[in-house]
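Appendix B. Chain record.
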Amino acid sequence: MSEQPPRVPTERAADSSEEEGAGAREGEGEDESDGPRTPGIGGDPREIADVTPDPGGKTWFRDLDEAVIESDRCIQCGTCVAACPSDSIGIDETTGRPTLVRMCTGCSRCWDFCPRSGLRYERVLEFGRETEPARNGSRKTASDSSRETTYAARARDAATNDAGQDGGAVTALLAELLEAGEIDGAIVAGEREGEPLRGEAVLATSPEALRATAGSVYSQTMQLGRVHDLLEASDIDKPDPQLAIVGTPCVIEGAAALERYDWDGESDPIALTIALMCTRSFEHERLRSSIAGCGVDPTAVDELDVSDGVLYAYDDGEALLEEPIDTFDTAALRGCAECADFVGGGADISAGSVGSDASFTTVVVRTDRGERAWEVASSGLETTALEETDALDRIAAWNRRRAVDTLPREFDPEGSVGITYEEHREAYDGTDREPEPLNPARVHQYEEWC
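Structure tokens predicted for this chain:
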């Protein structure tokens, strides 16, 4: 069983144990090393030019584009942006999706770390339960234990409790960590000014800033791909900043994989991961249209909440909308249906509303880092241990069944971490989630940069 993605960073290629893991995913490429790459489905612009064929084993951003983005399976986590060593992938601010902004080197990292293509995300959830590969090829005991403790929690501070959702436990936790100097900032989601219901990644460096962004945003913000940009624009002036990142389970899966394999890049400053329990996120414009279709002006909505399968929209506490969440299926990101990770099992701490009384957050603490953060923040939280987690377990089981039924590939928590481009195509071709031809508007990009 391969324990790592197929292509480890260049500086680690000499590690014999890691070369063995790499070969498990590159064996097919070795047989074709003297021939051209497997063509994509969209008519490869590079094949028009009289150039030397690319060596085998490379996967380009255009392959990820066709398999994930053009096929409307992108979950907007930002992992591909974070993984790219050449900063070739940017973020289209109109669509909120990844896009090529400069020459692609074919390093394959975007493919390897994307939870909807080359990263077998269900294996990421096991990282805390097993030994980890060290840089020198030896094994080391996992720093994070497999234990999990579940709490009902809310903020003791009245202002934080009122500002946050479900008692403001996550806001209070982060505020206490900031005050104690355990972290220098927290990457959270706020609402973009002038664009109601659209999320925006924010680096909060004070309790006041945290309270200003408290509450849930139901659209993705690509925050994992914005870490360094947010740091550069912040007032943090430290050579080794320590950040917490709050995101949906898919965001945390990407962060966990990047950290696991010591990839130098966007994940370096991340010292704590907090997952928000999630069954789906929404595409901003489609969500606005769906809300308008229910007879509610989207610009009047200042808060959304999802509870017990119902989506609520509020304006200054007044309920404007109460509809079954299934009403908004067309607004959901299509790739969310492939996710079995409702709880956010790859995170240090997970938080959500399921399983706790109103005005409380259900919090799962599962790692050494998570336990330390929980202990440091305890003075700012009112907590009760939850012995009964049936409600949480039921939603998690339903979410897993949906993913297993939706995924064209095998759901295999014990399989190799990596999925090659060829393996992905074999599973997805001929299904309703197969790769889509390249958008003609992007052909010039690929002629120039791939």
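Further analysis of this model is presented in Appendix C.
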